[in-house]
Amino acid sequence: MTAPALVLTDSHAHVDGPEFDADRDQVLARARAAGVRRIVVIGAVGEPASAERAVALAERDPDVFATVATHPHDAGKMTADWWAVHERLATHPRVVAIGETGLDYYYDHSARDAQADAFRRFVALARQVGKPVVCHVRDAHAEARAILAEEGAAEVGGVIHCFTGTPDDAAAYVAMGFHVSFSGIVTYKNAQPIRDAARRVPLDRILVETDCPYLAPVPVRGRRNEPAYVVHTAAVVAREAGIELAALAAATVANTARIFRFPPADPA
Ligand SMILES: [Zn+2]
Ligand SMILES: [Zn+2]
Question: Which residues are within 5 Å of ligand 2 (an ion), measured at CB?
């Protein structure tokens, strides 16, 4: 069998979720066939069962890695028991980062104080275990940068995932040492500011992701998203960067492996 011409990494996928219960193995097989060799599964939606599922997936598949935290949407519901699960899983060898955590002042599903408190605690946990932090930030970039600075997050680094800020926000995160990850949103017609932001991120700091099952990129927008579709997002980021897709793909694979400290890949 010949290896796929293009290799990509999906740096942020929620394939642990119920949307994939019926066909998870086929979804992972399609990803591999499309060249999406490695996938970071984000175990952070709702109860820590999400974190447990992400870790279980990473334990059985050497190309799947997990993160653990409680999403800012659910920060207000976090209990001491939830926290104990995250603390235990944080040191698991297949857990490559703490996240997603952060601030979402667009939806405000949890009180802002609760979001900020959880964000600070998860950054502290990331520093404690020496792993990077995956940040979800919407309409709260200045506030998020203040917390990242106050909590010393640059010591472990991390990713601002599904970036939706301004080009200046992107540049500010890069200046702080962070990576910036682009989702299918960058392919949407009305997302010119996000494409402008992509041009402000150096090639060695850019990641691509699906954030599936939502935010499927053009031309599959509206469908359930899955890791195989990350190529469409990578193609738009490459175009904005003025480089070949293969070069963008290689850079994002290397960046993702470096920030999450993946072991060397086995030959495909
Ligand atoms: Zn998110
Ligand atoms: Zn996510």
Answer: 42, 211
Q: What is the pLDDT of residue 266?
A: 73
User: How large is the angle between the packed helices 167-175 and 141-150, nearest 10 degrees?
Assistant: 10
Q: How far apart are CA 218 and CA 267, in angstroms?
A: 31
Give the distance (Å) from ligand 1 centre to CA of residue 149.
Answer: 20
What ranges do the domains of the chain cover?
A: 8-259
Measure 209 CA to ligand 2 centroid, in angstroms. 9
Give all strands of the β-sheet with 133-138 in edge-to-edge order: 8-13, 36-43, 64-68, 95-104, 133-138, 158-161, 179-182, 206-208
**Ligand 2 centre from 98 Cα, in Å?**
12
List of the chain residues with pLDDT < 50: none
Ligand minimally distant from the alpha carbon of residue 45: 2
Residues in the chain: 268
Ligand nearest to the CA of 164: 1
- Residue 267 C-alpha to ligand 2 middle, in angstroms? 29
The architecture that CATH gives domain 8-259 is Alpha-Beta Barrel (3.20)
d(CA 197, CA 173): 11
Distance 66 CA to ligand 2 centre (A): 12
Distance of CA 90 from the midpoint of ligand 2 (Å): 18
Ligand closest to the CA atom of residue 10: 2
What is the pLDDT, as a whole number, of residue 3? 52
Q: Which two tokens stand for residue 40?
A: 């970071």
